[in-house]
Amino acid sequence: MSSLPHYAKGEVIKGFGRGSKELGIPTANYPEDVVNNLPENFAKGIYCGFASVDNGAVHKMVISIGWNPTYGNTTKSMETHIMNMNEGDFYGKELKIVILNYIRDEVKFTTIEALIETIHSDIKYADEELNKPEYEKYRSDNFFKA
């Protein structure tokens, strides 16, 4: 993907409330202005990279960018799941991410169980992929320190 790596930052806002409650996989959501700032050719889909909240520790993450076809959203969103971060909600805090690798396209699932299973598979893939040396340098990128 020619748009990668892609850096984004913005305030965490309330999303649809499905990540934690329905799926058991909490997500941090960006406001519309951050979503609209994606490059025009940025493909919708599932990606992985690194994330930091309020210049804190840098964690692996997966992010869904698009319309969440399983739910039929009419607004494009960026929903970030930060791996191994159990600090509760962080609405109003600054979320910085670097998107490094495309995992897959968005898919409309016929069951929530199938969606959850695939998200867990995405997380496992990202956890392994982001250990590669070519990605490790991004964990200490100055972007996360400023």
From TrEMBL:
Keyword vocabulary terms for this entry: ATP-binding, Flavoprotein, FMN, Kinase, Metal-binding, Nucleotide-binding, Transferase, Zinc
GO molecular function: ATP binding; metal ion binding; riboflavin kinase activity
Substrates-to-products reaction catalysed: riboflavin + ATP = FMN + ADP + H(+)
Cofactor(s) needed by this chain: Zn(2+)
Record carries keyword rRNA-binding: no
SMART domains assigned: Flavokinase
Major enzyme class: transferase
GO biological process, one term: FMN biosynthetic process
GO CC, one annotated term: mitochondrion
Protein name stated in the entry: Riboflavin kinase
